[in-house]
């Protein structure tokens, strides 16, 4: 297990290093930098002033030097200065991370609460009216983009109740009810789509497991349905479901851009788009690295969970 | 005895009631927080560094000017300028000196006293005089003060602007939202992430990209102002969400530069009690031909382009009805200086579209282009929906006269650098003018070598006329000169004007004294705004 974990940590480190190079180079391949944008919005170009600002921001140095400086700063715990806001990048990023993580967590919670039981029910009642209904609902969830669903929810709330959640972040310590309402609707929009995916994976995995000999034995022994389904079948059917949940969480962290925009939540994903448009390199680089870290950690966690869910899996043993 | 019928009582009440309501409605009530909307985070709070309404709108309440356009009058002109930090002013030496007498009772938000040194510091910084201690990052309006020879501060309450020649427009530019006074004791760079002014509101909190919160300045020099306790500018990026928030009452006023006729009207239809104000943006739409390119040396080519585009169709298709036709300067009823409609309609491009298209084809044929040898070029524009919509309409119009134009969408970040370098053939562009003023427009866009003279148009005769109008003190004579220049610029293809966009400002009826002007940049002070809740 320890050898396996060590190998995985090394792989994760190398992945992140590769990501840092890709992020850094891709960002600089996009035409224009913050200095161009500053002058672009002003409608004119002053070459001397441009040169001065580029020098001040270190953008006149070679790409390897800029890259080396970024890594050095990260190692020191310094995320640099946001070119756009003229304040430390960490000050801009810090309040956004909990918002996105909380939204992703809520959405995933809704997805699991809806997706797993519905998937189990659909498998147990295979090819019945219930199964068809649940599969139709899940297909609808997969077909509707979450941002579209978000817009529909907003319009529904405005049209029917003349109300929408707060447009600025409400801390749970300030107003718990408003905080929950602020996250509930976007989490529903995102969670419904993910629940459809989880439901389908749960259903197909359960169908496989329910045909196993040991399940037939359990039925033959006259065990109760809920013990057979939840005690024996579901635990063994969970492996692919856990994988999907892990991937969905990682995907959500970077993929909530439009949902955060529609519900005006000040999260990482929405801000990342802004930062890219402004070529705010320090913020973009560090935010993308943050998302990469989440993806790597989520994958690692899923791998470790395998061993707990299925004791037959023994890491590092051949 | 006959008792008066109940109908009579009702009539009497109805007669009295509106009067009493109207009277009470006119008495400002102090207190309350105005929930205003922004569509993006301001690039900074330093107005002198910026050129976008997203910066001016939330930063204006923090500052004061020497003078300001009266926020309660919707049309800005020399006659609507009111004192702010200057109690009064006088023109001396035949218009070559402008003297401002400053208020004594003004303090900066950090408690320091305001003096003439602050005024001198502000405008010397913009003019980039050799003795300045800190520089602006981007200095987009240096040109406005090109005619200022020196600024003197003989005592703490007097400032003298010495001019190279008389310039009546200077006062208009000083009255713009783009001309706040900065504190001399704070480095300019520190005013980018925060604001420190003398204005009616102080910055309380800025959550980057989310919220700007202002609170009433209790030491404000105008007693009894501001009426509001504070302002919350919420940044809402999605247009649908912005209007939903307004409809749901989360916001009191929409953003003032949406240029969204249809959605505004739909929202008004859904919530009839909302107030919809139709006004101007002081932003014009135009086609630019690059005179550096050999093909446009032949005037028949750009004249044909100008004649090909149906302006009525541009308003309907390109702007969905949210524009008016006009020339170089904003026309009436919104503007002061623009050509009257009957004169504008006589100019090429604004006549009968069928006849004009026939004429365009004839010009192209004379220049050697026809169905077997069509004229081809790219129309560049910014990759922003409004720009692309209008450019697509223009391309369609050009096709109707046999020009094969293609659309080139340019990312915003590289748009102006590309334009400044002249790397385009034909472009579709939008230009916003700070104050509705000839100098602010002509000097930036049309003089030989001007910073935003993208087509590289140059006519020394027109330059002389611009110099002449700029120093003409008689308003009637100046207006005549301005109109002559406007016509010449259009006839010479300096910009192929399409029209001026209109704005539709939505707000709840309890928002009082927020009067949209013809220019979006000049009425954000919020000193007079109050809530009738």
Describe the structure.
The complex is a heterodimer of chains A (318) and B (533). Chain A is mainly α. Chain A contains 14 helices and no strands. The radius of gyration of chain A is 24 Å and the shape is globular. Chain B is an alpha+beta fold and 533 residues long. Helices cover 30% and strands 21% of the residues of chain B. Chain B has a 6-stranded mixed β-sheet with strand order 12-16-11-15-13-14. In chain B, strands 1-10-9-8 form a 4-stranded mixed β-sheet, with helices on one face. Chain B is globular. The model of chain B is unreliable at 1-24 (pLDDT under 50). At the A-B interface, α2, α8 and α13 of A face α5 and α12 of B.
Key features of this structure:
heterodimer, A: 318 residues, mainly alpha, 14 helices, 0% strand, B: 533 residues, alpha+beta, six-stranded mixed sheet, globular, disordered N terminus
């Amino acid at each position: 297990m320890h050898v396996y974990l060590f190998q995985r940590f090394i792989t994760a480190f190398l992945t992140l290093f590769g990501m840092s190079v890709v992020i850094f180079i891709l960002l600089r391949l996009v035409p224009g930098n913050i200095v161009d944008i500053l002058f672009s919005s002003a409608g004119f170009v002053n070459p001397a002033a441009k040169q001065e600002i580029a020098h001040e921001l270190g953008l006149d140095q070679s790409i390897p030097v800029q890259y080396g400086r970024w890594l050095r700063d990260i190692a020191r715990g310094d995320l640099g200065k946001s070119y756009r806001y003229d304040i430390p990048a960490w000050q801009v990023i810090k309040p956004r991370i909990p918002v996105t993580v909380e939204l992703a967590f809520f959405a995933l919670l809704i997805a699991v609460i809806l997706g797993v039981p519905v998937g189990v029910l659909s498998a147990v009642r295979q090819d019945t009216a219930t199964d068809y209904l649940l599969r139709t609902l899940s297909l609808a969830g997969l077909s509707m983009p979450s941002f579209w669903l978000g817009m529909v929810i907003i319009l529904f709330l405005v049209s029917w109740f003349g109300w929408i959640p707060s447009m600025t972040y409400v801390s749970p310590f300030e107003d718990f009810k408003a905080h929950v309402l602020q996250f509930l609707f976007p989490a529903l929009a995102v969670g419904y789509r993910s629940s459809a995916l989880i439901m389908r994976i749960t259903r197909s995995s359960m169908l496989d497991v329910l045909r196993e000999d040991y399940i037939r034995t359990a039925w033959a022994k006259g065990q109760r349905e809920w013990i057979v389904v939840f005690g024996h079948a579901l635990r063994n059917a969970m492996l692919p479901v856990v994988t999907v949940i892990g991937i969905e969480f990682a995907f959500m962290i970077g993929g909530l851009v439009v949902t955060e925009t529609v519900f005006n939540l000040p999260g990482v994903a929405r801000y990342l788009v802004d930062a890219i448009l402004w070529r705010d390199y320090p913020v973009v680089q560090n935010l993308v690295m943050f998302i990469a870290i989440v993806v790597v950690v989520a994958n690692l966690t899923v791998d470790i969970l395998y061993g707990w869910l299925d004791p037959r899996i023994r890491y590092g043993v051949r | 005895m006959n008792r008066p019928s109940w109908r009579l009582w009702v009539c009497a009440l109805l007669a009295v009631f509106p009067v009493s309501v109207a009277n009470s409605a006119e008495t400002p009530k102090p207190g309350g927080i105005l929930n205003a909307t922004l569509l993006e985070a301001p690039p900074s709070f330093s107005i002198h560094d910026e050129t976008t309404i997203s910066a001016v709108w939330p930063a204006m309440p923090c500052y004061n000017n020497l003078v300001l356009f009266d926020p309660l009058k919707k049309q800005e002109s020399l006659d609507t300028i009111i004192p702010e930090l200057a109690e009064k002013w006088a023109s001396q030496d035949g218009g070559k000196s402008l003297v401002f007498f400053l208020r004594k009772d003004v303090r900066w938000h950090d408690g320091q006293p305001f003096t003439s040194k602050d005024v001198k510091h502000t405008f010397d910084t913009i003019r980039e005089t050799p003795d300045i201690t800190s520089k602006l990052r981007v200095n987009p309006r240096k040109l406005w003060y090109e005619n200022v020879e020196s600024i003197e501060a003989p005592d703490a309450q007097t400032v003298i602007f010495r001019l190279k020649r008389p310039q009546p427009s200077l006062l208009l530019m000083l009255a713009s939202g783009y001309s706040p006074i900065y504190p001399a004791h704070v480095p300019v760079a520190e005013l980018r992430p925060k604001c420190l002014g003398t204005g009616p509101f102080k910055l309380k909190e800025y959550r980057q990209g989310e919220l700007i919160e202002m609170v009433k300045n209790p030491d404000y020099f105008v007693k009894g102002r501001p009426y509001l306790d504070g302002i919350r500018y919420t940044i809402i990026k999605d247009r649908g969400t912005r209007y939903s928030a307004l409809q749901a009452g989360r916001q009191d006023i929409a953003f003032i530069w949406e240029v969204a006729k249809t959605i505004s009207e739909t929202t008004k239809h859904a919530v009839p009690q909302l107030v919809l104000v139709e006004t101007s943006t002081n932003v014009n739409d135009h086609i630019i031909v690059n005179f550096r390119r050999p093909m446009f040396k032949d005037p028949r080519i750009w004249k044909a382009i100008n004649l090909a585009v149906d302006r009525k169709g541009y308003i309907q298709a390109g702007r969905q009805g949210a524009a008016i036709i006009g020339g170089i300067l904003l026309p009436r009823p919104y503007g002061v200086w623009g050509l009257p409609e009957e004169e504008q309609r006589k100019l090429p491009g604004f006549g009968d579209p069928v006849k004009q298209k026939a004429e365009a084809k004839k010009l192209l044929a004379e220049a050697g282009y026809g169905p077997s040898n069509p004229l081809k070029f790219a129309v560049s524009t910014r990759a922003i929906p409004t720009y692309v919509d209008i450019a697509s309409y223009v391309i369609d119009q050009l096709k109707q006269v046999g020009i094969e134009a293609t659309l080139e969408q340019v990312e915003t970040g590289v748009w102006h650098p590309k334009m400044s370098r002249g790397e385009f053939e034909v472009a579709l562009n939008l230009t916003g003018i700070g104050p509705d003023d000839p100098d602010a427009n002509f000097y930036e866009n049309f003089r030989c070598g001007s910073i935003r003279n993208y087509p590289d148009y140059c006519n020394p005769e027109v330059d002389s006329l611009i110099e002449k109008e700029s120093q003409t003190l008689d308003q009637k004579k100046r207006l005549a000169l301005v109109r002559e220049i406007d016509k010449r610029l259009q006839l010479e293809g300096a910009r192929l004007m399409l029209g001026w966009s209109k704005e539709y400002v939505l707000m709840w009826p309890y928002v009082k004294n927020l009067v949209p002007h013809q220019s979006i940049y000049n009425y954000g002070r919020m000193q007079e705004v109050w809530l009738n809740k």
